[in-house]
């Protein structure tokens, strides 16, 4: 697979390669991103190559001219996982200036670093401390639910979580959640973003009586084939 070939129109550049980025690199490939790993040292370059990655680029990340040679496009994802937090912030700032429309995701291990990364222009910051703390809490207090979610999110799972936006002219418009039989379609509605109420994710068990409307985002669990059929079926307009 060469650099110009796209899979599902998704391309990602992973800046930095170390123990903290191994899982991220694998996940990006599993999810069909065309992955380019960008490193600045011979050690990181050799490590990525030894792990079987073909598209590995070694350059000086402190040099904007070198970064521009990557030919990043507007819809590309830039993932900053440098071990040095200060340099991760610097890199995020540089990438935002060079590629203003690309989506930047950065890792953080402290509240202060998270704030700096957001100010530097990161679209999303993954706080490793917060993620770890939440996971430990869930394992201790909700072991069955945690195991269930882990199984769903596993790349080997037959089940998937999918966000489905209710399209224009869909027959779901103005139908209340309790009045629609999702199980008939082989899917389970977990929650939704109700545009009438807020842009926050709402679990169906929150006690509110939800009404489905065009533009709302539903989060459903199901087998991929069932989710595909369901997503296609709600596009049908009923008169």
Question: In a nutshell, what does this entry contain?
Answer:
The protein is α/β, with parallel strands linked by helices. The protein is 34% helix and 21% strand.
Structural class: alpha/beta
Annotated CATH architecture of the largest domain: 3-Layer(aba) Sandwich
Identify the strand order in the major beta sheet.
3-2-1-4-5-6
CATH fold-level assignment of the largest domain: Rossmann fold
Number of helices: 8
In whole angstroms, how far apart are the ends?
A: 47 Å
State the name of the first-level CATH class of the largest domain. Answer: Alpha Beta
Strand content: 15-25%
The unreliable regions are 1-7
CATH superfamily heading of the largest domain? NAD(P)-binding Rossmann-like Domain
Which series of helices and strands comes N to C?
EHEHEHEHEHEHHEEEEH
- Tell me, what's the shape? elongated
- Tell me how many strands there are: 10
Main sheet summary: 6 strands, parallel
Describe the structure.
This protein is of the alpha/beta class. The protein has two domains: 11-132, Rossmann fold; 159-233, Alpha-Beta Plaits, CATH 3.30.70. Helix content is 34%, strand content 21%. The protein is built from eight helices and ten strands. It has helices spanning 22-30, 42-50, 64-68, 85-98, 111-120, 128-141, 143-153, 224-233; strands spanning 11-15, 34-39, 56-58, 77-80, 103-108, 124-127, 159-165, 187-193, 202-203, 217-223. A six-stranded parallel beta sheet has the order 3-2-1-4-5-6, sandwiched between helices. Strands 7-10-8-9 form a four-stranded antiparallel beta sheet. A hairpin with an 8-residue loop joins strand 8 and strand 9. Helix 6 crosses helix 7 (143-153). It starts with 10 loop residues before the first strand and ends in a 6-residue tail after the last helix.
